[in-house]
Design brief:
It is a single chain. The protein has 204 residues and is α/β, with parallel strands linked by helices. The chain has 8 helices and 8 strands; from the N terminus they run αβαβαβαβαβαβαβαβ. The protein has a 6-stranded parallel β-sheet, with helices on both faces. The chain has a two-stranded parallel sheet with strand order 7-8. Helix 1 crosses helix 2, helix 1 packs across helix 7 and helix 4 runs parallel beside helix 5. It is globular and about 65 Å long. The two termini are 28 Å apart. GO terms for molecular function: metal ion binding; oxidoreductase activity. Keywords: Metal-binding, Oxidoreductase, Zinc. Belongs to the zinc-containing alcohol dehydrogenase family.
């Protein structure tokens, strides 16, 4: 659990130039995205928008709101750029945390940012980009690559977790025996689960 917390901490608190009072958009509804929502809340974001897809509506969007998201945007049915700018205002959206790794999410992230805004790319994408990034030059926007974390991230993430500022329990959607491993994997695939805890339940 500490790994995604540390990544969320480093991407916002150490790598970005985020200032309290700004707005944050987070792409990706897995643990990285949900911990990023919490870090944005801790850092003093006003609007925190979680962007996901139709399969996130039932389970992950409600948990995102419980953990601090002030709005959710369904990328399957809504114009993501327009909707995020409506929620945040074009002048306030200075930071996007992109945790999905999808090229379309990176494209939308760049488009929605205000001038001088930043995208921290936490998610790993494996396909070549198929869109222009001239918007970065034209409006002084930045893409910041993210990989792993350091001792500062680790130490401070542990302190935030111990203090209760970072919450994990709402993200543990399943507690099952190891003999039910297939059920756990199926739940992850269909996004009815976020974190699955498996315990050893075989006879010795």
């Amino acid at each position: 659990v500490l790994d995604p917390i540390c990544n969320a901490y480093k991407s916002i608190a150490q790598q970005s130039k985020f200032l309290p009072g700004q707005d944050v958009v987070v792409f990706g509804t897995g643990p990285l995205g949900l911990f990023s929502v919490q870090m944005a809340r801790i850092m003093g974001a006003v609007n925190i928008v979680m962007v996901g897809l139709e399969e996130d509506v039932a389970v992950r969007f409600p948990i995102a709101k419980e953990l601090g998201a002030t709005a959710v945007v369904n990328g399957s049915t809504e114009d993501v750029v327009t909707r995020c700018q409506e929620i945040c205002g074009k002048d306030n959206l200075g930071l996007v945390i992109e945790c999905s790794g999808a090229n379309i999410a990176l494209k939308q992230s760049i488009e929605m940012l205000r001038p001088n805004g930043e995208v921290v790319r936490v998610g790993m994408g494996f396909k070549p980009l198929d869109f222009s990034i001239n918007d970065i030059t034209a409006w002084n926007k930045s893409i910041i690559g993210h990989m792993a974390y350091d001792s500062t991230s680790w130490r401070n993430a542990i302190r935030l977790l111990a203090s209760g500022a970072i919450k994990v329990k709402p993200m543990i959607t399943h507690r099952i025996g190891l003999s039910q491993w297939r059920e756990g994997f199926d739940a992850m695939v269909d996004k009815t689960a976020i974190k699955v805890i498996m315990t050893y339940d075989f006879d010795e």
